[in-house]
Specification:
By secondary structure, this protein is mainly alpha-helical. The protein is built from nine helices and no strands.
Length: 247
C-alpha cells in the first residue's frame, strides 16, 4: 500500500521537491550578502535604545533600496501563504474524490488491504508530506529573514519609518509565515480538501470548495479573530533580574 501511494503521489512529490530546491537556491544566493549587510550595520553590538533603533531603521531603509531583498521578502511571504492552499486543492481534494469519481476504489477495496488501512496510509503519507513541505518553506525563509526580523523589532520605536519590512510579530503576514502557523495551515488545508472530496465525490467541485473555504479562513483569521487575542506581556532581562533579587 505504501508503494502504491508513492506511485500515485510521485508527480506531486517531484513538483514540490523542485519548488523547494528553487526556493532554497534563491535564499542561499541572497542570504549571505544580507547577513553581511546586517553585520556591517552595527546592530549586532546594540542592546536596545534609540541608537539601536536608528541603526536598524537605516539598515531596513538601505535594504529597501538595495538589490532584490524586498522582492525576495515579499515572494517568500506569498509563497508560504499560498502553499497550503495549493496543497489543499491539488493534494487533498483529489485524494479520495478521484478514486470515487473514477470508481477505482472498487478494485482497491476488494484486495487483501482493508479500507481502514487504505485510507490511513493515504492520509498519513500525503498529509505528513504536505506539512513537511510547508514547514520546510517556513524554516528556510525564517533563516533568510532573521536579520530583517531582528532589525524590524529594534526599529519599531522609530516613528514615521516606512519600508516593505514593516509589521510586528502578530501582523497578518509575519504571524502566518513563521513558527508552527504554516504547519497548522497546511494540515487544515489538506484535511479540508480531503473532506470536501469525500463528501462531494467530484474532484473539480471539491477543489473549488476547498479554495473558497480556505481563502475565507485566511481572511477571517487576521481580520476578525487574531485582533481579539491579547498581546504577550514581555519583560526585559534587567527587569527579570531585579524581580529575582527582590524575591
Amino acid at each position: 500500500m505504501t508503494w502504491l501511494t508513492w506511485r500515485q503521489f510521485r508527480p506531486q512529490a517531484i513538483t514540490a521537491a523542485a519548488a523547494l530546491a528553487a526556493f532554497a537556491i534563491l535564499l542561499a544566493v541572497t542570504g549571505p550578502h544580507l547577513a553581511g549587510l546586517y553585520a556591517a550595520s552595527g546592530i549586532t553590538g546594540c542592546h536596545g535604545g534609540t541608537p539601536c533603533g536608528t541603526a536598524a531603521s537605516h539598515f531596513l531603509s538601505k535594504l529597501a533600496d538595495t538589490g532584490p531583498y524586498p522582492i525576495v521578502y515579499l515572494l517568500g511571504v506569498a509563497l508560504i501563504l499560498v502553499a497550503p492552499a495549493i496543497i489543499g486543492i491539488f493534494w487533498g481534494a483529489p485524494l479520495i474524490a478521484r478514486e470515487l469519481e473514477s470508481r477505482t476504489f472498487t478494485l482497491a477495496w476488494n484486495q487483501s488491504i482493508t479500507r481502514t488501512r487504505w485510507l490511513a496510509v493515504k492520509l498519513t503519507l500525503t498529509g505528513l508530506a504536505a506539512m513537511a513541505v510547508t514547514e520546510a518553506l517556513s524554516l528556510m525563509y525564517a533563516w533568510w529573514a532573521d536579520p530583517i526580523g531582528k532589525a524590524r523589532d529594534l526599529a519599531a520605536s522609530v516613528p514615521g519609518l516606512t519600508h516593505p519590512f514593516t509589521g510586528d510579530r502578530l501582523s497578518s503576514w509575519i504571524f502566518a509565515t513563521h513558527g508552527i502557523t504554516p504547519l497548522g495551515y497546511a494540515a487544515f488545508a489538506f484535511t479540508l480538501g480531503t473532506a470536501a472530496g469525500a463528501l462531494l465525490r467530484r474532484t473539480v467541485p471539491a477543489m473549488a470548495v476547498t479554495l473558497a473555504i480556505f481563502a475565507a479562513a485566511q481572511i477571517a483569521m487576521p481580520v476578525w479573530v487574531r485582533p481579539t487575542w491579547c498581546r504577550p506581556i514581555g519583560r526585559s532581562s534587567a527587569a527579570r533580574r531585579s524581580s529575582s533579587l527582590r524575591g
